[in-house]
Amino acid sequence: MSLIAVVHWFRGCVAFEAAGKNPEKLLNSAVQRGIPLWQIERRSGALFACTTPGGYHQLRFAVRKTGLRLRNKKRSGFPFLAHRFRRRWGVLPGLVLFFVLIRFLSMFIWNINVTGGDEAMRRQVTRTAASLGVASGTWKNSVSLKQIREDLLREIPELSWASMNLTGCELNIELRERSLPPQIVPTDRPCNLKARIGGVVIRVDARAGFAVVSPGDTVVPGDLLVSGVRQDAFGATMLRHAQGEVIAATTHRITCEIPLTQKKQIPTGETFVRRRLAVFGVEIPLNLTSPPQDGVFTRTFSEEPVEVLGVRVPVRRYTETWSRVEEKTVTLTEQEAADQAERELQNRLTEQFPLARVVSSVKTRQIGDGVLTLTAVLQCEENIAQEEQIYLEE
Q1: Which of 1, 206, 235, 310 has its CA 20 to 30 A from that of 130?
Q2: How far apart are CA 369 and CA 371, in angstroms?
Q3: pLDDT tops 70 at residue 181
Q4: CA 347, CA 273: separation in Å to the nearest integer?
Q5: Please, which pLDDT band fits residue 83 given cuts at 50, 70 and 90?
C-alpha cells in the first residue's frame, strides 16, 4: 500500500458516479471549490471518481445548478469505520494502545539468531552474549554492537571472526570458528623427518630430502628417516625441507577391563515435569511443581521458540523433566562383558590411532577377580614420519 493510499484511507474515501449532460462541469466546480478528486474515469456517458467525505458533501450542492445526479457507489476509510463503532467506546482507545504497544515493543531485541559453527559453539555464543548484556528483552539503544563483538571475540578464543547486525527486532550473529594450523615446519625452513614411533620400514617416499632408511630397516622413536642435510662433492652443505612419507609396520597393544558386576540406573517410570515461559528474558512458571528432593533422578531440559502466525515472538517455552531412577547392581555374562569390551576397544583405537590401518590382530581375554580383561595386539601400517626443524647457529 502506497503512502497516498494510506492518506486517503485515514481521510476517508467516497467513490461516486455523476450522470447527466456534460458531466465535465463537475470537474470545473471541483477545481473552483478546491475539492480533491482522484481515480477519475468516464464510462458509458457517466463520470466516476473518488473524493473525501467533505468533498462529496460540497459536490452535492455544486451539482444542483448543473443538473447532474450524484450517486454514492462506495464508502471506505477510517472515518466510516470509526462511525460504525462509535458506540463501542473501547475500540479507539484499544487501537491507540495497540499502536503504542507495538512502538514500545519495537524498542527491544526480540530474538537472537546465531549462524555458523556447531551447535555447542552457537549455545556458548548465546550464553556469552547474555553475560555481556545482550539477550531477548534488551533495550536496543543500550547495546553497542561494536563493543559486544570485541568482547565476544575476547571471551571465546575459538572464534576467529564474528559479525553482529540488528535487523528490526532481531539480532543476527554470524561467526566463524578458528582453524588451528597443524604443527608443521614452514616450507621455507630446513627440517628432517624422524620417527614418531618405532616399527619396521615398509616403504619410503622421500619427495624432498635424502632418505637414510630402506625397506626392512627397524627404527625406534626419534630415528632419522629422511635427512634435510647433505654435503656435495666439494664439501658444501646443502639444506632441504624434507618431505615425504615413511610407511612402517607397527605394533600396538590395547587393554580393556570390564567389571562383571556393575551399577546401572533403571528408570522407574515416575516423572516430574516443570514448564515455564520466558518473556523478554523474564521467566513465568506455568505450574507449581517443585524439583524432587528425595531419591535419584535424571534431568532432561528442552527449549522451544514460540511463533505466532509464522512470526517468532520474544517468548520461549522451557520444559524440564525429572525421571526417577533406581540404582541396581547387575551381573554381566561373559558374552555381554566381551561385547562391551569390544566396543571400548574400537573407540580407543579410533581415538588413539586414527591414521593406522589394522592389518591383523590377536585378541585374548581372561576373567579374574570379577573383571574381564580383553587384550588386543594390533599389527598396523601407518606413516611414522614427523617433521623436526633444523636450527642453525648464527
Answers
A1: 310
A2: 6
A3: no
A4: 35
A5: confident
Cell matching residue 231: 654435503
What length does the chain have? 394
For the chain, the first-to-last Cα distance in angstroms comes to 77
223: number of Cβ within 10 Å? 16
In angstroms, the CA 232 to CA 210 distance is 12
The C-alpha cell at 386 is 614427523
Residue 304 contacts residue 315 (beta carbons within 8 Å): no
- Round to whole Å and give the CA distance between 276 and 263: 34
* Closest alpha carbon to 291 in 310, 267, 312, 272: 272
Cβ atoms 382, 361 nearer than 8 A: no
Q: Look at the alpha carbons of 119, 121, 127, 132 in this order and tell me if their dihedral is positive or negative.
A: negative
Cβ burial, residue 113 (10 Å; 0-12/13-18/19+): middle
Does the CA dihedral 231-234-236-241 come out positive or negative?
negative
Closest by Cα among 32, 16, 33 to 68: 16
Phi, psi of 164 (to 5 degrees): -130, 125
Name the helix (H) or strand (E) containing 295. Answer: none
SS3 content of the chain, % helix, strand, coil (to 5): 25, 45, 30
As a whole number of angstroms, the distance between CA 394 and CA 268 comes to: 73
Sheet containing 170-177: give its strands across. Answer: 111-115, 170-177, 159-167
How far apart are the C-alpha atoms of 289 and 286, rounded to whole Å? 9
The pLDDT of residue 70:
84
Q: Which of 373, 355, 274 is nearest to 320 (CA)?
A: 274
Check the CA dihedral 311-312-314-316 and report its sign: positive
Task: Write out pLDDT tens, residues 231-281.
Answer: 766 767 788 888 889 999 999 999 999 999 988 888 888 888 888 888 877
Report pTM.
Answer: 0.46
CA dist., res. 266 & res. 98, Å (int): 53
If you write DSSP's letter for every residue of 33-60 in order, what string do you get?
HT---EEEEEETTEEEEEE-HHHHHHHH
Number of Cβ within a 10 Å radius of residue 378: 19
Containing 271, the helix (H) or strand (E) segment is: strand 261-279
